[in-house]
Amino acid sequence: MSDETTTGLSHRKLLIWVFLGSDCMFFASLIGTYLIYKGSGVLHPGPADVFDIPTTSVSTFVLLMSSMSMVFAYAYLVRDDIKAFRIWMFSTIIMGSTFLGFQVFEFSEFYFHDDLSPQTNLFGTTFYALTGTHGLHVTIGVIWLGIIFYSSLFRNTVTSKTNLDLDLAALYWHFVDIVWIVIFAVVYLFGTFTGFPSS
Amino acid sequence: MSVEIKNQSNHIDESHSHPKPMTYFKVAMALVILTSLEILVFYFDWLGYGIIPVLAFLSIAKFAIVVMYYMHLKFDSKLFTYVFMSGLILATVVILWLMALFGWFV
Amino acid sequence: MTTIPFKLPLNIKLYRPVSPTGVWGWLTTVDHKKIGVLYGVTAFIMFLTGGIEAMLIRTQLIAPELKIIAPEVYNQLFTMHATTMIFLAIMPLSAAFFNFIIPLQIGARDVAFPRLNAFSYWAFLAGALIMKSSWFLGGSPNAGWFGYAPITTATFNPGNGIDFWIIGLQVLGVASLAASFNFIVTIINLRAPGMTMMRLPLFTWMTFITAILLILAFPVITVALIELMLDRTFDFNFFNTKAGANPILWQHLFWIFGHPEVYILILPAMGIVSEVLPTFSRKPIFGYPAMVLAASFIAFMGWLVWSHHMFTTGLGPIANSVFTLTTMLIAIPTGVKMFNWLGTMWGGDIDFKTPTLFAVGFMSMFLIGGISGVMHSFSASDYQQQDTYFIVAHIHYVLFGGSIFGIFAGIYYWFPKITGRMYDEKLGKLNFWIMFIGQNLTFFPMHWVGMQGMPRRIFTYDSGMGWAFWNGFETIAAYAIAFGVLIFVINMIKSWTGGKKAGDDPWDGRTLEWSIPSPPPVYNFRDIPIVKSLDDFWHTKQKSSNSNTKVKSKTKVSDIHLPQPSYWPLLVAVGLTIAGFGIIYNLVFTGIGIGIMLITVCAWSFEPVNEPDSH
């Protein structure tokens, strides 16, 4: 096999970017479904009845900070500072899991306290499907980072030479973060804004 | 395996062209400020429909910052930008058009 | 998570299989040529099963008011016929060529991700088996190939048929996505030195554009199928009109995917024709840059026309006019391609071998299908044609006369390269003429009965409608097509086992795949070629008039480093299949399947690597 690539770019990095481009279509379809059904069918419980913006703001910050911690982990790995890499990696995983914890808390709050299930109305259906799919992406990301962390701790295979492995996981992780940026603005803030005239 | 070697030889350049942790921290602070602004304007009921462009601007800014710095598209090959942006732009256009067909913008 | 203890307590050493033989060799193969053959053979078997379904449909319609096939079974037959032909025959037959030919055309030794490529095949096989197993597991899907919700929801469609359809398509989608990611990276990143994008053979270009369309279109159908699956399995409300759901949403999501999908079906065939015509006309392709631009424009416009499948749903005059205009615009780049093919043949020294015949057949049939397409691109006229046999005629002209003829041209054209043997020219020509005449006699009268108002998807019709003669005629002609395909199968089996030796370059070809032995050695190119122009191989041959003087190769075969086989792609696909069946029957199996996938994906990534995707 010729080891040189035509463009000089790594196959795998190109692959992940093509994948992320494709994943844009995936999330766009879900967000599109949510917006198209916004305000149809049984209206209550609706976004304004269930969302607690302060709580979700905290989990949004947690996810944003996990992105920062992710780039730190990468920056230290490139400098072969394995110890700092492990610390930031661990903190990324913790923050990712915290975000998932918030989501579980939020879902159970909606489900048990606000009587909003996916079966209740179109809002429940589209909301759980959209945020649940995002949560699934976060879960896959946590598992992926977990495997790299594990490899670093017990197999010692993560070094600056294999920084590409981490780079791919990091790109995926940031992508999941930017999807949340959109969901937070569109679903949460726009969905519960009380200033719209006579809505 | 020469690509790996290439990566290694680039690696010194990368730590120059790639932002330092301090830059990453500044970016994170910018993200925090933008998010805080988002949450702040959320409580300005007097904005009315004006909230839509404001929220759109703030979240697009956050989106762009993360993609450019954290996903280092700004420092990487333009090809990655083309690949990603084509998916992103197509997704946006198609979904906006779909929403228009469902009577969103009339 | 579950994956961490997997390596922690057990210090498993993973071994990769080293050059296994026999069945094991095929199961673990990562060689793009073997995978291409697997794709081709499997997809052709699926093509035959879809053909049997078509013959049953035609037999039921041979005369009015027949009861050979029950209405419920008839619904399943036309649904499975279309689903099979589109997802299990045309797409994977094209994928077979992508696999076999692309690395050879760009001068590479394999694709960018050989194991992912193997996984694509196994996932395709899994999807095909899930889809087809529905015949034996209580009934097939019965709502047409576009499965309009809410008619596919559990309320209106109980039973497992639609679940098989959802899961089958979902698994096939995974296979197609994985393959397309792979080919995009391969074509961008594994071109031989000097092979710039504008020196790529047109088949490679069309593959590239198809793959881009595919990775952008399939996520949309994936979401739509997930929504339908959630509705059916977990009582979500996406398509539950009682909860206020919009019955048009599915149609929109489906056709946002579905329209690019029809270009996914036709562009590879266009690519094959663009290879065959220059070779057999002994002229370079006419207007190469225009061909590339036209295809890109078609691909782009394919995103802006989806609602022309929905003119009769009442989108209103503005939307209908806009989609009429965008749809008509597509005729322009298609016309550009048509004229370029004609320009290629014009003044050429045309050799009417079987591939040429099929390529010219493709052009003429696709032209007719294209013109009837322009007829119903006009929304006012579409109101009369929607859901009649006119549409059936149109789609069979573009997909059978178009895609399948193109694919047959490709099979005949590359048969000597793939097998090392020559097909039987006489049988090939007989095959073409029977299929060509049969195709026109079968599908052309459908325009007329369609115009007279015969709706598609009815299991029988009244004898007083005046459709009886042409329906009987169409059925007899359809048997002729089946006979033509039988001749093709005989030709393939006979020639593959005992055909004449073909030699490296039987057609005096233009592209790199003809510069290596037939069948190609496992490493493809002993020396990676250096490309200096479009059709470089042709020009090289022209310069050295004594074409037998071969430059001595400096590369030792033993030094060529090839990816090793692996069993993980197969095992991941097994996990995927179990998870898929679990959604239909019992979610416990889904859990088990996902567990298997997690473990096998980890094992895959920990596998000792010695291949290009280790970068």
Helix/strand order of chain B, N-terminal first: HHHH
Supply the number of helical segments of chain C: 18
State the assembly state of the protein chains: heterotrimer
Total domain units of chain C = 2
Shape of chain B: flat
Can you summarize the main beta sheet of chain C?
Answer: none
CATH topology of the largest domain in chain C: Cytochrome C Oxidase, Chain A
Rounded to an integer, what's the Rg of chain B over CA atoms? Answer: 19 Å
Number of DSSP E strands of chain C: 0
Q: End-to-end distance of chain C, in Å?
A: 27 Å
The total of helices of chain B stands at: 4
Describe the structure.
The complex is a heterotrimer of chains A (199), B (106) and C (615). Chain A is mainly α. Chain A has one domain: Cytochrome c oxidase, subunit III, four-helix bundle (Four Helix Bundle (Hemerythrin (Met), subunit A)). Chain A has helices at residues 11-36, 47-50, 53-78, 82-113, 122-155, 163-192. The mean pLDDT of chain A is 92. In chain B, helix 2 (21-42) runs antiparallel to helix 3 (51-70). The radius of gyration of chain B is 19 Å and the shape is flat. Residues 1-16 of chain B have low confidence and may be disordered. With 615 residues, chain C is mostly helical. In chain C, 65% of the residues lie in helices and 0% in strands. The model of chain C is unreliable at 1-11 and 611-615 (pLDDT under 50). Chains A and B meet through helix 1, helix 3 and helix 6 of A and helix 1, helix 2, helix 3 and helix 4 of B.
Which SSEs are present, and which pair or pack?
The complex is a heterotrimer of chains A (199), B (106) and C (615).
Chain A: H1 11-36, H2 47-50, H3 53-78, H4 82-113, H5 122-155, H6 163-192
Chain B: H1 2-17, H2 21-42, H3 51-70, H4 78-101
Chain C: H1 4-7, H2 22-27, H3 32-60, H4 71-106, H5 114-133, H6 161-189, H7 202-234, H8 249-281, H9 288-301, H10 317-345, H11 354-377, H12 379-385, H13 389-419, H14 425-451, H15 468-498, H16 536-543, H17 568-584, H18 587-606
Helix pairs in contact in C: 3-4, 3-5, 3-15, 4-5, 4-6, 4-8, 4-13, 5-6, 5-17, 6-7, 6-17, 7-8, 7-9, 8-11, 8-13, 9-10, 10-11, 11-13, 11-14, 13-14, 14-15, 17-18
